[in-house]
Amino acid sequence: MFLAKIIITIYLAYFSFFNFDALATQRKNPFGGATVNVHKREDKHIKTSALICALIETKSSSIEVKNALFDQFPKPISHSDKFLIIDSMLKMCPFIDSEKTIDILTLD
After folding, report:
1. Total of domains in the chain
2. 67 CB contacts (<8 Å, ≥6 apart)?
3. Is 95 helix (H, G, I), strand (E, B) or coil?
4. pTM (2 d.p.)
5. Domain for residue 37, yes or no?
6. Is 79 domain-assigned?
7. What's the CA gap between 45 and 47, in Å, rounded?
8. pLDDT tens string 68-86
9. 68 and 52 in contact (C-beta within 8 Å)?
10. Residue span of the structural domain in which 75 resides
11. What whole-number distance in Å separates Cα of residue 80 and Cα of residue 20?
12. Which uninterrupted H or E stretch holds 3?
């Protein structure tokens, strides 16, 4: 009887210790698997957006606008940087289709 209690105790301790991690990874995500991206707007995003808006308003060539963009950001522009530039442009010059403009400039 005493030996059976020891075996059961060891058995329960083993499975509660080693299978705890497996059970923890099987828990459902309360957000349904949604991911959250955090974008940090920096000064270079704001200044580049302002410069691009000004160049487009003054009807500068697309080469000048492209140079303004790629002076601050290396090719290819990351999705986060692209999002922040487009968002800044939407606030600074809402009459310009910023998403289309950035997409055209980044195509190569």
Report:
1. 1
2. none
3. coil
4. 0.62
5. no
6. yes
7. 6
8. 888 888 888 888 888 998 9
9. yes
10. 43-106
11. 37
12. helix 2-18
Q: What is d(CA 41, CA 73) in angstroms, rounded to the nearest whole number?
A: 14
User: Looking at the domain assignment, is residue 56 inside a domain?
Assistant: yes
Q: What tens digit of pLDDT does each residue of 15-47 get?
A: 666 555 555 555 666 666 677 777 788 899 999
* Nearest Cα residue to 100 out of 65, 51, 58: 65
Please tell me what DSSP assigns to residue 94: T
Q: In the numeric block, which tokens belong to residue 21?
A: 């991690």
Instruction: Concatenate the DSSP letters of all residues of 9-78 into one string.
Output: HHHHHHHHHHSHHHHHHTSPPTTTT---------HHHHHHHHHHHHHHHTT--HHHHHHHHHHHSPSSPP
- Alpha carbons within 13 angstroms on the beta-carbon side of residue 59 total 0
Give the pLDDT band (50/70/90) at residue 54: very high
- Evaluate whether residue 36 is within a structural domain: no
